[in-house]
Uridine phosphorylase (Flavobacterium saccharophilum), 289 residues
Amino acid sequence: MIKQSELILNPDGSVYHLNLRPEHIANDIIFVGDQNRVEKITQFFDTIEFSTQKREFKTQTGTYKGKRISVMSTGIGPDNIDIVLNELDALVNIDLETRQPKENLTSLNIIRIGTSGSLHADIPVDSFVMSKFGLGLDNMLRSYLIDDVSQDALEDAFIMHTNWDIRKGRPYAIPCSEALEKIIESDKMFKGITATAGGFYGPQGRVLRLNIQDEELNNKMDNFNFDDQRITNLEMETAAIYGLSALLGHNALSLNAIIANRASGTFSEDPYKAVDALIAYTLNKLAQK
């Protein structure tokens, strides 16, 4: 039996942070970072059957062209992903009354729709990026046993190429779900490695008043290549989503609308239009699944 201190439930039987019970979620779930973006997606739904919010975690479940879909905001960063993925898995794979894992496990389909900055001049603002791999620079996933899902060769190549300071922890690399990749794939999307940082400023190479450990890290990431895969963009969630999903038996895919180009120093003139286009594309692909 899983102890009450390990799996915390609210008085109504919902999981502690997400405020959800099993019947509240669909098997197809879209993640967004910003709670205000949830309704940017569900405004296209035919119906909305359920809505709740606790802290930054907002969830709405409904149907789009007859397909039952949940949309959830995760907030920012790998630490929030640790909460969201573990509690979602508990909803479908743990009997919350007996506190025992179920014999027959459910695999969720999780698609992240986010915004990101590109590291390459040839990946322009307003384009879309599909993350073939998540490269975690944050160290969160190292709290788990990840040898069976991580890509040692990619990690080793990145450490050598960047002269990575191991005091920051060993980076981890996790592939996307091939099943979801086939469903969502488009010739118009750029593909590559998405680097996931544990913060927005120093961990992503931004300097305000504090010096950073490696001022050249972004430049080194810009010319990293492994098996014809380069690092396309830098954000704060993808690798954590890929890692925990792989460990727990769920399918995960991360899609980003590029709203900034770090190489050219440009920013989208209409970032909302780019995000809306990615939302519409993803919903239609899910509805056809």
User: Anything to note?
Assistant: The mean pLDDT is 95. Residues 28-287 form a domain with the Rossmann fold fold (CATH 3.40.50.1580). Residues 271-287 form the longest helix (17 residues).
